[in-house]
Design goal:
The complex is a heterodimer. By secondary structure, chain A is mostly helical. In chain A, 54% of the residues lie in helices and 3% in strands. Chain A has a two-stranded antiparallel sheet with strand order 1-2. Classes of the chains: A mainly alpha, B alpha/beta.
């Protein structure tokens, strides 16, 4: 029996759903998802169209102004973030094109913007994913990089707004200087990685180059601005390449970094680690890095190539599902409706230590099993899975097993589920099985 | 009404956490501190069995000539036979799953009440439960036990509330004007130990999950030896009953506790399905007595359900919603060792609407006796607990002097 359709739904999707038949041809199914137009999640509750940056900042201003006036203390920014996240999580539970959501998730995590950046960042988080990530997951990496770095969410999260060229008019007048945060993470996390061997001077030059970019939260037009008065004058040199003064240099730098071989290797290793194995097989990494080089960073080509890596199919279940992925897979296996379970899924993420959009650091959520499996964390997974199994008391556990693991369920798992004393215990054992906790 | 600052409840919860973690230390404390004599030395536990326990299966009238025919395949063997009833005086017998209750009966601390019902005569679980808890002929927003607590002495400042509800929800029985404490198992509800064991076994060979779960189990104190043992029934209820006993035994702890146990709606395959639930109830009462220790002698427990079930077995080996049923009164304060029943008989003309056990005793008479004679509440407080029940006199002689 060909298990690849099922494997595709597990490895490259978010887990099978009972109401979504498995594809006859897994590669064609995955290709179709990346060829099709993007279907974004429904707008959050109470919105007819998804709120953009302008709307996000309006909500932020209302909250801040109300606080200052000691009026209304409702946390409207939190409501917005929560409802955005619930809508997106709900969509992951529902979507018939889960590979696309996996790609969105991968790139969102690669370019982490966290709620830990505060309200002024959180209020545009949903807009950030819609505006800077989603349009480019099957486009060019360089375009995504430009959109991300110039997005107010990233500029706010990595403090770019407070970085002032020391030689700029504003810097000289106020004695202000650089904040290297965005420049450093751009080189270290978003593009080259430390393996490229750049120096502190490269970071400083990069920070000088980026000065001027900031965010406008109150005055029209709100969003990203370039303040020439804060921009460091003169040319800059990053990794031996000279860039001229002015805002145009930023895009030139970003495209240079995007096409750098070190960036291609870094991205390839992360992609293969995410979709294939914790220790990415070197051959597979070379293949993806070469593809990035040969196609000028075409992420559609990369998305098509990942399922064509032999290592992506053998062995199965080589990756541990992250808490968010595990939770999504449980709700999908139970045939839950995203609209009514998005909130519950969010709470579960918080319980299992992966609170939504709240990665502790700019390097995002980890992507290796060991990072998620402290002894207590492993037990909490079991606890939650038992709790979740209680939601599906009306389902036939053998049917859920058939949907979620089918012929990939080994005898031990089959027997444990079959021999359980109640539906809840049967489902808890299925969800806790090594195969279900992996993908 | 109590107006304790929030810290009172918080202190209770913190105390409970400590108790769960260091049971030994707390028990030692309980032993060395002389019990302070207050007006509220009596302990009361009310247990709601949700789903309608089949009274005829819990306490079978095996002496009634119609019993065996009506019950058919779910009739229980007579006392003395294999898996036979546990005799209670030659006419009634306890279900063989209720061994602890039978011990209480022999010790004189169990008083089963048969052919009992509240005033409600329809057969909706949810209406019936609401009225059972409201203590009135219409649904109220407060429960009779909560209103009764208003008549008890206030908890001293900083001490736990007099009333305590165990479980995730505050039952209607305990809702109302009087503040009560709550104790809930940690969320999410953890799997029973034997399920952990099966999960760990399933994950054993996984290179990442296996070692992590093994370490996690050790860290949480599930010794391998314990996990290797065969499955036991120690689920949520038994644990909660033990905790209730431990708390009620504390000198300045709560005095009144409420808890509930579901799983009684046995429309099919009753012989197989009822056993485990009865077993949990029985094990729970055993745990409660064990943890109450010396306070057992001052304790009365009322076990009640919303109604009984049909006297005839149905086509699925089960029973359907009925009327008259069984309540249990138990504890060291109870004058037991006998069955309290005006037996209506099971012949065709003796049944309620030709299908149910005819109720001959009002459950409120038993509950009102609990409040008047056990908690020693004034008449006004008893009346407030059961409004409109003036015609129902408290049952006399249920408690030891």
């Amino acid at each position: 029996m060909d298990t690849r359709p099922l494997q595709a739904a597990i490895r490259f999707g978010l887990g099978p759903r009972p109401d979504q038949p498995l594809p006859a041809d897994p590669l064609a199914w995955l290709d179709a998802q990346i060829e099709a137009e993007d279907t974004p999640p429904p707008p959050p509750q109470d919105f007819e169209i998804p709120p953009g940056t302008v709307e996000g900042y309006r909500i932020w201003r209302e909250k801040i102004d109300a606080q200052r006036a000691m009026r209304d203390t409702r946390d409207t920014v939190w409501f917005l973030v929560r409802d955005e996240a619930a809508a997106m999580f709900g969509w992951c539970i529902d979507t018939p094109a889960p590979y696309r959501e996996r790609l969105v998730d991968f790139w969102t995590n690669h370019f982490t913007v966290s709620r830990r950046g505060g309200d002024a960042v959180s209020c545009v988080l949903g807009a950030y994913i819609r505006e800077a990530i989603r349009p480019h997951v099957t486009g060019r990496f360089a375009d995504m990089l430009v959109a991300v770095i110039k997005h107010p969410a990233m500029l706010g999260y990595l403090d770019q707004a407070s970085s002032v060229g020391p030689g700029s008019p504003y810097g000289r007048k106020r004695g202000r200087g650089l904040n290297e945060n965005l420049a450093r993470e751009l080189l270290e996390l978003h593009t080259l990685s430390p393996a490229a061997g750049y120096t502190q001077e490269d970071v400083v030059q990069c920070a000088r180059l980026l000065t001027g970019w900031g965010t406008e939260l109150r005055n029209e037009p709100v969003g990203t601005v370039f303040r020439a008065s804060s921009h460091e004058p003169g040319p800059k040199t990053v990794l031996g390449r000279r860039f001229e003064e002015g805002p145009e240099a930023t895009e030139a730098l970003l495209r240079f970094l995007a096409d750098h071989p070190a960036t291609q290797r870094h991205l390839a290793a992360k992609l293969v680690r995410h979709f294939v194995a914790d220790d990415p097989p070197p051959q597979a990494v070379s293949r993806i890095a070469g593809l990035l080089r040969d196609t000028g960073g075409d992420l559609r080509a990369v998305a098509a190539a990942l399922p064509r890596l032999p290592a992506a199919w053998d062995p199965p279940f080589s990756k541990l599902r992250s808490p968010a992925d595990l939770i999504t897979a449980v709700f999908r296996a139970g045939g839950a409706a995203g609209a009514s379970t998005g909130q519950a899924a969010l709470s579960a993420c918080a319980l299992l230590n992966q609170p939504f959009w709240s990665a502790p650091q700019p390097n995002g959520w980890p992507d290796q099993a060991a990072d998620w499996l402290g002894p207590e964390a492993a037990m909490q997974r079991l606890d939650w899975l038992y709790d979740a199994a209680g939601r599906f008391g009306r389902l036939d556990p053998m049917q859920v097993l058939e949907t979620s693991l089918g012929p990939l369920a080994p005898r031990d798992t089959l027997q444990a589920v079959r021999g359980a004393g109640s539906t809840r215990e049967a489902l808890a054992l299925l969800f806790a099985s090594p195969e279900f906790q992996r993908r | 009404m109590s107006h304790l600052p929030k810290i009172g409840r918080r202190g209770l919860l913190l105390g409970l956490t400590a108790m769960a973690a260091t049971a030994r230390a707390r028990l030692a404390f309980a032993e060395t501190t002389p019990a302070t004599a207050t007006a509220g030395e009596s302990r009361l536990v009310v247990i709601i069995l949700r789903g309608a326990m089949d009274g005829m299966a819990a306490l079978a009238p095996y002496g009634d000539p119609a019993y065996r025919e009506l019950r058919g395949g779910i009739a229980l063997p007579e006392p003395g036979q294999e898996q036979g009833l546990l005799d209670c005086g030659g006419f009634f017998g306890l279900n063989p799953q209720l061994a602890t209750l039978h011990r209480f009966f022999r010790e004189g601390t169990l008083l089963p009440v048969h052919a009992v019902a509240g005033p409600y005569r329809n057969r909706s679980h949810f209406e019936a439960q609401d009225l059972l808890e409201s203590g009135a002929s219409e649904r109220l927003s407060s429960g009779w036990l909560n209103r009764a607590l208003v008549g008890l002495p206030e908890a001293p400042p900083g001490k736990p509330e007099t009333g305590l509800a165990l479980g995730l929800d505050l039952p209607l029985l305990m809702r109302g004007p009087q503040r009560v404490g709550m104790w809930a198992p940690p969320r999410p509800v953890r799997p029973p130990p034997d399920l952990y064991a099966r999960m760990a076994e399933l994950l054993h060979a996984d290179p990442a999950l296996g070692p992590a779960v093994a370490d996690g189990m050790r860290a949480r104190g599930y010794a391998t030896a314990v996990l290797g043992q065969k499955r036991d029934l120690r689920g949520g209820f038994v644990a909660l009953a033990g905790i209730a006993g431990k708390l009620l035994a504390t000198p300045e702890g709560p005095r009144v506790a409420a808890m509930e146990l579901g799983g009684w709606d046995t429309h099919a395959d009753q012989s197989r399905r009822l056993g485990p639930v009865l077993g949990q109830l029985d094990a729970g009462m055993s745990a409660l007595q064990a943890q109450l220790r010396g306070a057992w002698s001052k304790t009365a427990v009322l076990v009640m359900t919303e109604f009984g079930r049909t006297v005839r077995v149905n086509g699925a080996g089960g029973t359907d919603h009925g009327t008259g049923g069984v309540a249990f009164l138990l504890g060291g304060a109870v004058a037991g060792g006998r069955v309290l029943a005006d037996w209506p008989g099971l012949a065709e003309g003796q049944l309620f609407e030709k299908r149910d056990l005819q109720p001959t005793r009002d459950l409120r008479a038993v509950a009102k006796a609990l409040l008047r004679d056990h908690l020693r509440l004034p008449a006004g407080a008893v009346a407030a607990a059961f409004p409109g029940s003036g015609a129902v006199a408290p049952e006399a002689g249920l408690f030891r002097a």
